[in-house]
Amino acid sequence: TKDGKPYGFIYEKLAIPTQHLLEWLSGVLGGSYGWSIIVITFIVRLIMMPIMINQSKKATIQQEKIAMIRPQLAKIQEQQKNAKTPEERNAASQAMMKLYQENNISMVGGIGCLPLLIQMPIFAALYAAIQYSPELSKTTFMGINLGHRSFTFVVLTFVISALQGWLSTLGLPEEQKKQMQSMIIVSPVMLTGMTYISPAGLGLYFFIGGIFACIQTLIINFMRPRIRKDIKKELKNKPIKEVTVESPVKKTDDEKKV
Length: 258
Hints:
A hairpin with a 2-residue loop joins strand 1 (140-141) and strand 2. The protein is elongated. The protein has 258 residues and is mainly α. It has nine helices and two strands; from the N terminus they run H-H-H-H-H-E-E-H-H-H-H. The protein is 75% helix and 2% strand.
């Protein structure tokens, strides 16, 4: 703030238009800012859902392919672990990279950061709009002041994000569940922390967004058998390529001197 008044790019270019949109929606919806936030969340998530489902589908394909190459991965990792020289470790690392490349698998997974990047300006706009708007900061929704922190939304956000994490593990092998464990724990904790330090209006956005995330996960779970079927069909035409760790060429005494 400057002289007690908010200013800056986020407030002027994002928060003020968001305030006007919330006020307009509130007028249409009988004066409820809570329902205005829900409508905005619905629109944002509806626009993003095809992108997020596509990202999740790619991630599922990557997971299924990684499961196919896991026996080879285990061998290479064992050789990397038992490597006695830098050359042997480097050869194992190159073999692992080649295994991923030959089988068209991304080493960073299929989930990109685009959905999060799209939402960041929305988080900032809603936060500033609620925090600095006299009307929004004092309005209530179902007895909860949207301008103050709400323990109710902290709990609801944690529950819905934990549920989404659990749903994402359904139908997966135990090994994949173990690999996803850290993400399943970290994601609800981060969202809950953000809800705790934010006005309840943003907590409402996170909670409704979490419901959409659960729906998206259920859609992916429904699609997973078909994805597996498509991968098996693809592997009939293009079987998994095997990669072996090439023994590093030993240098001669003359080469070592050089």
